[in-house]
Amino acid sequence: MTRKNQILKAAAQLFKERGYSAVTMRDLAAAMDMKAASLYNHISGKQEILATLILEVAHEFTAGMDAVEMDDKSAFAKAEQLILLHIKIALEYTNALAVLNTDWMHLEGAAYQEYILLRKTYELDFKKILQSGISAGEFKNISVETMLFNLLSTLRSIYLWIPKKSTTEVADLKKELPQILLKGISS
Amino acid sequence: MTRKNQILKAAAQLFKERGYSAVTMRDLAAAMDMKAASLYNHISGKQEILATLILEVAHEFTAGMDAVEMDDKSAFAKAEQLILLHIKIALEYTNALAVLNTDWMHLEGAAYQEYILLRKTYELDFKKILQSGISAGEFKNISVETMLFNLLSTLRSIYLWIPKKSTTEVADLKKELPQILLKGISS
DNA sequence: GTCTATAGTTGGATAGAC
DNA sequence: GTCTATCCAACTATAGAC
What sequence ranges are listed for the domain HTH tetR-type (chains A, B) (predicted)? Predict the structure, then answer.
């Protein structure tokens, strides 16, 4: 692992615990056992760290959504795949995902614009899948907004739950969560 | 409304938008059309504002839970009442609830201890109700942890959804959310 | 690549006039 | 109750030695 990646990893951990604004470059340097000034040999500043962490995860979601849309399956199967995508990302990028969820509004400039666009596109794509499921009679005919709200609010919280759990409990989650979430909206 | 309450209200709005650490006393004063120094005639400091906002909402949850526990109803009915409690608090204390959800870790000293205790007690009480529902055969025999995770992660996100919605859409939510959430765990 | 030293800015909070 | 003025600590980031 490069020194830069070590810094990013340590930053994700600290930003998750205390939030972007409450973590100082001195805190981050201390976690890395170095002085704050030395960090600047690897990264251009605090903002670059935030943007790198958040945009990597956001692109992971976009790539996952693209893969799901490729498959020619039922809306139900696609929704199930998306639930598993959220669990997978929560496992692989736990800390960076927490940062995305809580500190995206502290992005600046082009990184902010890019994040907003990625999120909007992702939610729109998700909504299309739900809508096609309603049209096909797979899902209840309730408001797509309410449906998406319920799904995303649970999916966005997985990262809070994952780190506390054992491997077997995570396996349970992969089985039970699609059941619970999709039973609630199935017709 | 007292000047202090006006300050608390403005602070809740700003903390919700940018987070506790990113909002300065000068920002808050500007939102109140006054100078930062004048704030200190009404509050002792930034921490007092945070603690007041969060603990008021936390006590509201505790009072609601106490009322639900008093009633001698089925676990299903109690769970339904708790869902409505979360919606009610999200409507009445939208901004302060957002602050509780995102900035509780910035509480200090006794206020931090009190919040942690209130939250732990609330979750334990919620779990007891779910467990009694499983024992009574009202709910599926799946992990109580998973069940609570799913319920709370949705309920904790309501405040993100509420401010964007019309009165009729909120009425829809009150009808549909208990259905969606409880169907997922009903046996 | 890391350090010391420090520039330049901004933070929470106080003192004292009005 | 609000203001101006200010203290002092802490912040991000840079300069330059090693």
Answer: 1-61
